[in-house]
Design brief:
By secondary structure, the protein is an alpha/beta fold. It is built from nine helices and ten strands. The strands form three sheets. Strands 2-1-3-4 form a four-stranded parallel sheet, with helices on both faces. Helix 2 crosses helix 3.
Amino acid sequence: MTSTTTILLVGHGSRNRDGNRETLHFAAQWRERHPDWRIEVCFIEHAEVLLDDGLDRAARDARRVLLIPFILNAAGHVKMELPAALNRARERHPQTEFAVTPHLGMGRQIFTVLQGQLERLMKQLAVPDPRSTGVILLGRGSSDAGANGELAKMARWIFEANEHELVDLAFTGITWPRLETAVQRQIRLGMMQVCIVPVYLFTGVLIERIKAQVERLQGQYPQVAFALGTHFGFDKGIFELLDNKVGGEGLPECRMLECDGCKYRELAEDGHLPDHRHTATGGDPPHAHDDGLAQPQTLHRSHSHQPA
């Protein structure tokens, strides 16, 4: 990493200022690990420094900008807004090379972080029998089926690596099932303890909401012991994951996101699609990358979910 390169860490942004402050604190700690690197931070929403401003700041006195989406799952923000912002930045700064890595994703390093969270929760419960202890991975939730599927992959990996008979996933919003439904299912199937593992980098409005939901569930099911994990953005595995991305474990030539240059994103920018999700128009097939189909909001199921 040369002094003419700026690393731009792009966070999601939270209405809870503590969440954004934690992202900035993470960047400060990362700078301490790499004092020779120039690391800047911006956010996609709910913050003072947003994408366009962040890209302009990063391009100042830099020959190259390496953008890292500091986001766990690739939904609309990563697939649509980041490529659009990069295109605008390339037009404003033709003398600067803009490269980009993939988002954090749900790979082996994130799995290791989640496995560590689960092990700590089991110790918190005094190491009960895993066969009577359910696990729920709790994500943000998206209208993009591929992003939700990544969390399902983590749930399967957790199941394969442990002896828990039930490993479910739930979402805080947008899609289903919600936490209450997953807890109901596990208790009906005989779980005496439930470990809830939030898949979040930093605190925010949703983390506070999760705490309130678990407190209410504990009151509803006093016979069940609940253990709630926390956000894990400061885990050493996250620093190592970012180090790997800077070291080149990214996209080929680190230039394009999975929807950078995609005709559906271009149509959305021109206002020819109904929203920012990947939906097909006319006779075209649905828009899909290797992460699966992106599901439009109108295809969401109703509230009549029944436990399996």
